[in-house]
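[09:14] KT: can someone run the structure on this one? pasting the chain below
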Amino acid sequence: MEQTTERLTIERTIDIEASPETVWRLLTDEQEAKRWWGLDASFDPTPGGEFVLNVVSGSIVRGIFLEVEPPRRLVYTFGWEKRNDGGHELTPPGSTTVEILLVPTDDGTTLTLTHRGLADETEAEQHGVGWEHYLGRLAITAAGGDPGPDPWLRQS
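[09:31] RB: done, structure tokens below
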């Protein structure tokens, strides 16, 4: 008997008051990413290039860029090399895929993020909360604001 495990997908959409080029830079430049997302980053935004992000102390995301179409589409694998809450075994590196679409609008950019392959409802909910938190910080940064210190860094 064949056993299958259904994987889950979450999607988040946000309007950002900045051009797709500005948003793209914040997503793919490791120095810019640290302004809104994480303690440290190492990105090679080319197909096959590595994606490593130390989100908060003890939580490291690792993946590989799959598709890079500046400034409109970015796809990479996503998983936790290590997570400070110990939950990394449910979403190991390479086990999920993140796709980000940037669509120009009259007021800036609509960003749609789709995260596919999450193991269960708990993982989907936790990642959804995380994406909402960091996409909000991205929108502030892209519009020229300062999102301030990440409150999640104090919790880690």
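[09:33] KT: thanks! The first strand starts at residue 8 and ends at 16.
[09:34] RB: yep, looked fine to me
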